[in-house]
# Entry
Amino acid sequence: MTQPVPFPPSLWASVTPDRPAAPALEGEIRADMAVVGAGFTGLSTALALAERGHKVVVVEAARAGWGASGRNNGQVIPTMTGAEPDVMAERFGAVGERFAQLVSDSAANLFKLVRRLDLKCEAEQTGWFQPAHSPGRVKLSAARVEAWARRGAPVSLLSADETAALTGSRAWYGGMLNRSGGHINPLAYARALAGAAVAAGVSLYENSPVQSVERTPAGWVVSTAKGRVIADQVMMAANGYTDWFAPGLAPRLAHSLVPVLSWQMATAPQPEAVRAKVLPGRQALSDTHGDLRFFRWDARGRLVSGGALIVPFNGAERLKRLIGARLAGIFPQMGVPTFDFVWNGRIGMTDDRMPRFHRVADGLWAWVACNGRGVALSSALGPVFADAMEGKAEADLPVPLTPVRPYPFHGVAKLVAPTLLAWYRHKDAVEPS
Ligand SMILES: Cc1cc2nc3c(=O)[nH]c(=O)nc-3n(C[C@H](O)[C@H](O)[C@H](O)COP(=O)(O)OP(=O)(O)OC[C@H]3O[C@@H](n4cnc5c(N)ncnc54)[C@H](O)[C@@H]3O)c2cc1C
# Structure
């Protein structure tokens, strides 16, 4: 029997009740659709397909939520990190405009799904705030507010005083508030989605790393060490972990993103007096720094934050000092906090900060590279890929399909990518007013 993969320790893993493990894949199974990977994307795609009456199998290497979906900050954000909505529309025309709309509606739709299926995941639709760290960035916030408002997003531009009132800090100059956003316990959400998918009829297999996906005359064959699924259509939803368990599974796909480690940290529970002054409205917050400042409260009074490092050596201890001092500078009410949890996960990055959506071959679909904003988007992709697998015309989909383009010198790019943090820090320090 395949050895179960240990679940990575994190705040979320320590507070979230586990589900009983699904069986490992053994023998041969026939399905209409197969999905590789049980993160938000794979599970929401499988759920959408099963709700439409298809026979769906999900094959997960470890456990549902083992990848980015169970390790993230849980911020439900209806924007991308770098790709602006007008640029999406300019680059991809009508499809790009539909993609911008998909992103714009993505947070509201996640919370709707949570309410419809009663997914227990500590969901709080308190809004997402992006404060500006320089006067120049306030102009960018204003442009973003204008662009997202044109797409119907519930956004507003906050002044410096309003920002101070919302955050409890004078660290920022203003910013964009989007009231459709908020936060969740991401592992609880992944596990609840898995439960909902199984209840809708999805056959979930865990502890079953897929080794190959091949086209045969009988259909697409998804193979593990002990079993195989034969399906008409396959969705590759292994994203930033595509090469983690089986480097030979889809190397071109795995090399079309550059994986970067993002570190997450949770403080000790904070007293009521601090919680009343720091982000008292409990919004999720990620600011405009390239070296991102991000925070949100969890359900137990911990502030969940994190950061990035150029070199991961002794990362947890170094980050406790770095982020502890940063938090104390931004929120003096808190003093220097102690951290009970530090963990990390892989984010798939691209040079233009756009995710990649692929029809790899007839009946084989994939997406990769959320560029750090995938909680809301990956949930929104479920119905989109379900439509694609049901045969909706590619030109009518709300995602731009592009050919798979691996980065040349991928090994070098992986080494160099973390050093870009030094460049972001430099740019953050010389922001124009
Ligand atoms: C540390 C961190 C913080 C983040 N914070 C935020 C945030 O606050 N807000 C936000 O919007 N986004 C955030 N993101 C991004 C967000 O988490 C991801 O975009 C989202 O979870 C992607 O989901 P996914 O299902 O596509 O991929 P994943 O959740 O990574 O799922 C891929 C799955 O595929 C499985 N798999 C891999 N190989 C195989 C194989 N061979 N066979 C079978 N299964 C396989 C993996 O085990 C995994 O379960 C963060 C990401 C990280 C890493």
